[in-house]
Amino acid sequence: MRKNIVAGNWKMNTTLPEGVKLAEQVNAALAAATPKCDVVICVPFTHLATINQVIDKTKLGLGAENCADHKSGAYTGEVSAPMVASTGATYVILGHSERRQYYGETSETLRDKVRLALDNGLAPIFCIGEVLEQREDGSYLNVVKTQIEEGLFNLSAEEFGKIILAYEPVWAIGTGKTATADQAEEMHAYIRQTIESKYGKEVADNTSILYGGSCKPSNAKEIFSKPNVDGGLIGGAALECESFMGIVNAF
Ligand code: 13P
């Protein structure tokens, strides 16, 4: 059966010393706990190799927030999937709405990134989600379906089995405005159905679908109680050990 996962997305926050300190705190908190979910932190590229040295990877997974759409070569400033994997990281967030919105990432680029991530042993945390206008005009289910079809449905069933999905309604990210548990469940059930129609029930049932967008210790329990919500991708609340652990302990 699918795993419950709580993953932090630190975004462009923390210097290296601050990030190492936060990772050490989360690591220490997990050493003293028996969480009912897998816990992952996705951190800036500059932090990966160092944080990999200070955490117990049997209790805390490590991931990047992006990777390049090429394997190597003359792409100044980019960081490739093999580079990420060589730090010890085993996850990578792909297609976050901030990447789609501010850096022009398209489904086409994302297909290349997903392929490179999988080829290098990284589990993609693939983000999808509608903007406010699409929520309001009622097209949100279709928007998310298209993002999944275009970004992932070229994969074989075996490859798709390695994907973690994160539904992040753009209007809920960093706004303090969460989707209600029912809104999340409606979308997550629809996503699972979309996967089932392509890959069958077993693959769909085994896919972890995380919710992201203003998730906090105070609302995580209700959202995670929904049958199709398998955890969260946490932004702001992942930047403090106490609030992040509060969400982990919501399971
Ligand atoms: P917030 O939790 O800060 O709303 O961010 C969610 C997010 O974008 C995680 O990837």
Q: Which compounds are bound in this model?
A: 1,3-dihydroxyacetonephosphate
The end-to-end distance, rounded to whole angstroms, is 16 Å
Bulk shape: globular
Unreliable spans are none
The main pleated sheet reads as:
8 strands, parallel, barrel
Give the strand content: 5-15%
Determine the fraction of residues in helical runs and give it as a percent range: 40-55%
How many DSSP-defined strands? 8
Count of alpha/pi helices = 12
Structure description:
With about 250 residues, the protein is of the alpha/beta class. It has helices spanning about 15-30, 50-55, 80-85, 95-100, 105-120, 130-135, 140-150, 155-160, 180-200, 200-205, 215-225, 240-250, and strands at about 5-10, 40, 60-65, 90-95, 125-130, 165, 210, 230-235. The chain has an 8-stranded parallel β-barrel, surrounded by 6 helices. Helix 5 (about 105-120) crosses helix 7 (about 140-150), helix 7 (about 140-150) crosses helix 9 and helix 11 runs parallel beside helix 12. The protein is globular, with a radius of gyration of 17 Å. The two termini are about 15 Å apart. 1,3-dihydroxyacetonephosphate binds near residues 9, 234 and 236.
Write the layout of secondary structure elements.
Elements: E1 5-9, H1 16-31, E2 38-42, H2 48-54, E3 61-64, H3 81-86, E4 91-94, H4 97-102, H5 107-119, E5 123-128, H6 132-136, H7 140-152, H8 157-160, E6 164-167, H9 181-199, H10 201-206, E7 209-212, H11 217-224, E8 231-234, H12 241-248
Parallel strand pairs: 1-2, 1-8, 2-3, 3-4, 4-5, 5-6, 6-7, 7-8
Helix pairs in contact: 1-12, 5-7, 7-9, 11-12
This protein binds 1,3-dihydroxyacetonephosphate.
